[in-house]
Amino acid sequence: MEATPRPDAHAVQRAETLHAQATAALAAGNPAEAATAFGEAASIGHPGAQLELARLHLYGIGMPSDPAQAVHWLERAEAAGHPGAAYLLALVAVGGTTLPRDGRIDARVLRAVQQGVTPALRAAALHFGRKPDPADQTRCVQLLEHAAGQGDIVAAQLLAERLVRGEGCPAQSDAARDLWTQLERAGVPRLPAIETPLPVQAAGPAGQLALLEALVAPDWAVLSETPAVRSIDGLLSADECRLLVACAQPQLRASMTVDPVTGEALANPLRTSHDASFDPLREDLALRLVQLRIAQAARMELVHAEQLIVLRYTPGQEYKPHRDYLPPSSLATHAPGAGNRTRTICVYLNAVDGGGATAFPEAGVSVAPAPGRAVVFDSLKADGSPEPASLHAGEPVKAGEKWLATLWLRERPYRGF
């Protein structure tokens, strides 16, 4: 994209003033006022204002969501050299709708890594952490160290887990303990112990960012034809499982269920877990790439997915037999254009000391938890009608904790990008 002409000194000062006013308005909870000021500064050519205006368009803050307009301003900011623009363009492109999923994703993320954009460092670390080459494992640790040094708490949590186990580096128990102590002082809890062999799926060329390897759907094992139930071992790496737990921990709330009459979310004794969901504002590139991998493993596109849910079950907690398809009352108020939940994919994030299997009573199938293992099942029949045989349950946890990530996938696109 062609760069815009350089504004004169008066215009530059005007843009700086507008940018400061917009930032203050946004902090004060006035997004519409912020959008107006960011828009004027962006039109003058202020890269920071272009980036912030793009965020408002992307996430629908103070205005209707407009990913295409967000991309327009991000490309302007990228042409001006803003370090965060390439990163956000790559994040949008992962969805494969507003921007194509192509090699520009890798180039943009590499640029963001070179410019020290913290969430890009974390995303690249997890990518290299899936690769078997020892040098890539070392790159993973180095990138986590860089991100943690910039204040990234999640990167610090992932780094501590690698240091204590000697993953990608010699074991460094003292360094891990120092990190855990610092995190504990900041109110950050320890992660559960998560260990699993590296995934056996395609990992791209050694030493290179090849983020679109997340599009390669691994083989699955057919456990039942009716209802359709499949399983996949080793879908996620230990780093990816730890990432989901680390991002969920601060947001955990008592789980709710949808009332079949009113469509409202209510507490229900059927479901006694705690969970956290990730709306688009909470999704960084690493989370988007993990979700892309999960959706592709279910043979569906990420834009069909509802918000990712991460659940924690403690001893005695369970999710009694239920079905995932939504009742008409809920569909009428909850993105009806996307249709019903047609497929679910659940990924276990840790080893459970006892219990916690996912059972399908009508199929006579039970899937035991294992880190990175996924279970995929259909809630609708081929003709789009509900499949009653999709009844399933999260059996009670008998010992330890069970962490689980769930992606509900709709018949038609649900997300904007």
Automatic annotation (TrEMBL):
Transmembrane segments: none
UniProt keyword Oxidoreductase present: yes
MF annotations from Gene Ontology: dioxygenase activity; iron ion binding; L-ascorbic acid binding; oxidoreductase activity, acting on paired donors, with incorporation or reduction of molecular oxygen
Short name of any one Pfam family annotated for the protein: Sel1
Keywords: Dioxygenase, Endoplasmic reticulum, Glycoprotein, Iron, Metal-binding, Oxidoreductase, Vitamin C
Cofactor(s) named in the record: L-ascorbate
Fe2OG dioxygenase domain span: 304-411
Gene3D superfamilies reported in the protein's UniProt record: q2cbj1_9rhob like domain (2.60.120.620), Tetratricopeptide repeat domain (1.25.40.10)
Domain of life: Bacteria
Protein's UniProt name: 2OG-Fe(II) oxygenase
Source species of the chain: Marilutibacter penaei
